[in-house]
Amino acid sequence: MAAAVRIPLTTNRRYLAAGTFIMFGVIDIVLFGLFAEKTNAVFELSIPGAGTKIPSIHAPAAQVCYVLGAISVGLGVTRATVELSNRAKRLAIAAVLLCFLLSLLCWSDARPSVPPLNVINLLQGTMAASIPLVLGALAGCLCERSGVINIAIEGQLLVGAFAAAAVGSAVASGAAGPSFTDNLMGLIAGSLAGGLIGAVLAVFAIKFLVDQIILGVVINVLAAGLTAYLYDRVMVTYASTLNAGNTFGTYKIPVLGNIPIIGPIFFEGGAVQIALGTAGARGWRAPHSRRHGRHQGALDPLP
User: Fold this and answer.
1) How far is CA 65 from CA 5, 22, 45, 111, 168, in A?
2) 3-state secondary structure 237-274
3) pLDDT tens for residues 244-279?
4) Core-most of 74, 95, 158, 184, by most CB within 10 Å?
5) CA 286/CA 288 separation, integer angstroms
6) Maximum Cα–Cα distance for the chain, whole Å?
7) pLDDT grade for 194, boundaries at 50, 70 and 90
8) Which residues pair with 43 in a beta bridge?
9) Of 3-17, 49-63, 202-216, 252-266, which gets the smallest average pLDDT?
């Protein structure tokens, strides 16, 4: 009686990845290419009022979708037939996702009722909105590196945002307007509030050996319910003094902020946005450095 032969898991993953790439390519061709308007998609590369004007890109929507879909299908075939390195696999995934995104933008922007897409404004908003997500992801990586699985990141962000808005508005109430110091105090209060939730997680997970997954879910539910209740009962009632919506002003880094395309995206924005983006890049590097990585590994309590 012949013994059953087990297919290696790596082979299954290779064909699954290849099939996914080909599926994205077919979507680019069939869904976005065939149903795209027979017009050009216009992408603006300069923001209004910029000193240097970059000409807009006019791309035939359907043809671009066909080409991007063919690239994704070709990457899928290559993934199925060639054993790639880990870096090449990641680059292939990024290329397929980029082709899908560009096809979606071409299909959407080619419609006559849609105005030209300003790529700079789109990427500026993406950078600003991604900073809390990146910092939360880095917090999870650092905690896991230290031996604690942090599921309560959402709760930390909720409580921190609530405390920052309340303290920043309360300090600025009665004044002519919010100052940088008022907003900074709100930022510090939000950081301390989020750190307090992290301290609660650490105490219960390390000292009392509570299941970390269950503990994180409970903290998230508690934070969501508490902030929602206090928002309805306090912030809505006293919106002018506790929820004024104060924000930091826009800051442009000299010289670097004047670089076309790159400058407005990476070197122009809120002062805190630029600082947190720099801190996020430093936090990504910390676990990979020899000194910080060794210190974090030594903190692993194995709870």
Assistant:
1) 42, 14, 20, 14, 47
2) CCHHHHCCCCCCCEEECCCHHHCCCHHHHHCEEEHHHH
3) 777 777 777 788 778 888 888 877 776 666 666 666
4) 158
5) 5
6) 88
7) very high
8) 57, 117
9) 3-17
Closest CA to 26 of 89, 79, 77: 77
Q: How confident is the model at residue 197 (pLDDT cuts 50, 70, 90)?
A: very high
* Dist CA 116 CA 57 (whole Å): 10
Task: Fill in the amino acid letter for 132.
Answer: P
- pLDDT reported for residue 303: 46
In terms of pTM, does the model score above 0.90?
no
Contact present, 174 and 188 (Cβ < 8 Å): no
Amino acid at 265: I
| 101 close to 26: Cβ distance less than 8 angstroms | no
Contact between 29 and 104 under an 8 Å Cβ cutoff? The reply is no
Integer CA distances (angstroms), 10 to 7, 17, 18, 86, in order = 9, 10, 12, 12
User: What b-and-e string marks burial along 36-58, b requiring 16 or more CB atoms within 10 Å of the CB?
Assistant: bbeebbbbbebbeeeeeeeebee
Q: What is the mean pLDDT of residues 53-74?
A: 93
Distance CA 190, CA 276 (A): 14
**Nearest one of 32, 23, 28 to 108, comparing CA atoms:** 32
3-class SS of residue 159: helix
Cα separation, 140 vs 195, whole angstroms = 13
Which amino acid type is present at position 205? A
Helix (H) or strand (E) holding 9: helix 9-26
Locate 289 and state its tokens.
Answer: 């450095």
Handedness of CA 197, 199, 201, 203 (dihedral sign): negative
- Sketch the domain layout of the chain as residue ranges: 9-115, 120-147+248-303, 148-246
Phi-psi label, residue 168: left if phi above 0, alpha if psi -120 to 50, beta otherwise: alpha
Take residue 114 and report the two structure tokens written for it: 């849609």
